[in-house]
Amino acid sequence: MQSDIVSTIFLPASLAFIMLSLGLGLTPADFRRIVAQPRALLVGVGCHFVLLPLVCYLMVQTFGITGAFAVGFMIVASCPTGATSNILTYIARGDVALAVSFTAVASVLTIFTLPFIVAWSLGHFMGTQQTVEVPVRMMMGQVFMMLALPVGVGMLLRHLWPAATQRREPVATRIATVLFLIILVLAIIKNWPLLRDNFTTLAPFALGLNLTMLAIGFIVAWLARLSRRQSVTLGIETAIQNAALALVIATTVLKQDAMAVPGVLYGVLMYVGGLLFANIMRRFTTTA
């Protein structure tokens, strides 16, 4: 019962508040700038939808991971970026407007890319052919309720009461950071048996994939001559995945519990790499 309350009420409410707190620091001008100069979004799409699955496949082959676990990691790589990437972007002093925009764009594009990647992975690693249906309504509802709506409310509050909002934004940000840490601890507690049983075999791979994609996303953006804040953002957006969707695909759509193990491990360990990356980048990135 307590676990259900945490999953159905506390976690969604916490994510919504985190996104609202980010919205307090955004203005429509932030999003107009991205539309006017879409190069960062295009670079992010290339990193997330081409390089991430490709690197994941090459690492799976190199590490000798096979069967259901290999498919599980490919499912993770084919999912959109997670909403919590936005709070990591804020911690890293990245471009939050770009992060929010990319999360929304990635969630839509995944509807078309995920079925292809997962179906190919099933045939390649399991020798089975299966049509994979993406839970479109769930994804769109999740994006709206936990991303678009709270960010929009935060921006509306900033517009209506700018002075009061700016005074309260630091408090909201501190609360959001605490909630983010609580989410991380709860994820570890909830999935502790899976983490414990598979840590030595699969955890190094999951963490290695996360750190590799953080570096690749940042370096590719830097080579594309994007700003440091945009490069930091795309590093995070390339590596932080929607692990909840990966679990839904594995357990509900494919009905293979073993395929969910990589999602659980990556869903927890990506915050280890993400927080390390965010705090390092914060030291060298200004908000100007």
From TrEMBL:
Keyword Cell cycle applies: no
Membrane topology summary: Multi-pass membrane protein
UniProt keywords, alphabetically: Membrane, Transmembrane, Transmembrane helix
Localization per Swiss-Prot or TrEMBL: Membrane
Keyword Membrane: yes
InterPro entries linked to this entry: BilAc:Na_symport/Acr3, Bilac:Na_transpt, Na+/solute_symporter_sf
Ranges that cross the membrane: 6-28, 40-60, 66-89, 96-119, 139-159, 171-189, 201-224, 236-254, 260-280
Protein known as: Bile acid:sodium symporter family protein
Protein's organism: Acidovorax benzenivorans
